[in-house]
């Protein structure tokens, strides 16, 4: 089969690799019908995730069809259409039993495209298939479901729920890329008073407006002054960091009000300064986290009921064989306007 293989920082190729098979009784093999590229994949290619070894097939999000299931698999069977979650869960360890699947001790957590071969391929082996895939209703499209593999649950859990967004809150989202836009979308489920989007790119700020932000802060704007104006000088109730660089984290810490929450979602590859000399007296709560995907079934229900439209995140479509072109488009989002790219087994609709 063909797959996107990581060969060290800055190097990747779409090449022939052996087909995956059943290794453990809890495994399933899924034919990849649709896959996407994540900002984390770009971090890997920059060398920010040293646990990813050369030779690894990248990718941790997919929608596909089960083509083989191990003897211990009972929840899915050959022919089932499934969402492959970015998080793998053994379902038995202490963390899995509490819904903290991202911290799985039984060989799960974020492993696809990280510690085992991932989804940017024609086929993928999914460990612990019963607890790491979700059967898809007939009415949910591949594109909509694919957005529930990572960005929607990540933004919802690590940003909105960890940040404790409540009705009437002022929520600042720093970074209007796919994760930031997903945070805006899911924050609006809680009817906040204001949603403020901060970004350097005009195209992404326009996207933030479409996704529900009512105040846009761009280059040359004073973010602190803008937030102060809509909060009567208090600051944001919740500041969600959705970039993963020191400057954006430190900006969130400056924008949050006393007693507020900073929810860090971005993947950081360098240290950020934590100004405890300013924060300790302000009762600020800072949370970080890897997504657990415990919210995926609820989000899937909302999509099936027409309450969420994740397919709106998709801006570019490719065929699987166009993986290299899709990476170039996604990596150059400032020029291409890419939010999420989808690569499909079937010919892509342009």
Automatic annotation (TrEMBL):
Record Pfam families: ADH_N (PF08240), ADH_zinc_N (PF00107)
- Can you tell me which family this protein belongs to? Belongs to the zinc-containing alcohol dehydrogenase family.
Q: Which cofactor does it need?
A: Zn(2+)
Source species = Actinomadura luzonensis
Keywords carried by this UniProt record: Metal-binding, Oxidoreductase, Zinc
Which InterPro entries does the entry mention?
A: ADH-like_C, ADH-like_N, ADH_Zn_CS, ER, GroES-like_sf, NAD(P)-bd_dom_sf
Q: Which residues form the Enoyl reductase (ER) domain?
A: 10-343
Protein name, as recorded = Alcohol dehydrogenase catalytic domain-containing protein
């Amino acid at each position: 089969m063909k797959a996107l293989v990581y060969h060290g920082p800055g190097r990747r190729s779409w090449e022939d690799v052996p087909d995956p098979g059943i290794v453990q009784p809890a495994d399933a093999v899924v034919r990849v019908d649709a896959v996407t590229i994540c900002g984390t994949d770009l971090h890997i290619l920059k060398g920010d995730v040293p646990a990813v070894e050369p030779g690894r097939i990248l990718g941790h999000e997919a929608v596909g069809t089960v083509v083989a299931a191990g003897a211990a698999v009972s929840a899915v069977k050959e022919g089932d259409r499934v969402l492959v979650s970015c998080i793998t869960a053994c379902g038995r360890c202490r963390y899995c039993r509490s819904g903290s699947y991202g911290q799985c001790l039984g060989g799960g957590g974020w492993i696809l495209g990280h510690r085992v071969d991932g989804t940017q391929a024609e086929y993928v082996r999914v460990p612990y298939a019963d607890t790491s895939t979700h059967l898809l209703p007939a009415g949910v499209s591949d594109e909509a479901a694919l957005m529930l593999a990572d960005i929607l649950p990540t933004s919802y859990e690590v940003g909105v729920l960890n940040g404790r967004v409540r009705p009437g809150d002022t929520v600042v989202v720093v970074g209007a890329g796919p994760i930031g836009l997903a945070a805006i979308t899911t924050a609006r489920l809680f009817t906040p008073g204001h949603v403020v989007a901060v970004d350097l790119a005009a195209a992404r700020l326009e996207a933030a407006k479409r996704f529900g932000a009512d105040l846009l802060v761009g280059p040359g704007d004073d973010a602190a002054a803008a937030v102060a104006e809509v909060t009567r000088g208090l600051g944001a109730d919740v500041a969600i960091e959705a970039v993963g660089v020191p400057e954006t984290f430190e900006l969130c810490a400056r924008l949050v009000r006393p007693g507020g929450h900073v929810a860090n979602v971005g993947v950081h590859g360098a240290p950020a300064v934590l100004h405890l000399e300013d924060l300790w007296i302000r009762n600020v709560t800072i949370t970080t986290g890897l997504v657990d995907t415990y919210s995926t079934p609820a989000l899937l229900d909302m999509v099936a009921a027409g309450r969420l439209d994740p397919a709106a995140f998709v801006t570019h479509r490719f065929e699987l064989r166009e993986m290299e072109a899709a990476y170039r488009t996604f990596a150059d989002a400032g020029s291409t306007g890419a939010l999420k790219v989808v690569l499909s087994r079937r010919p892509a609709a342009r």
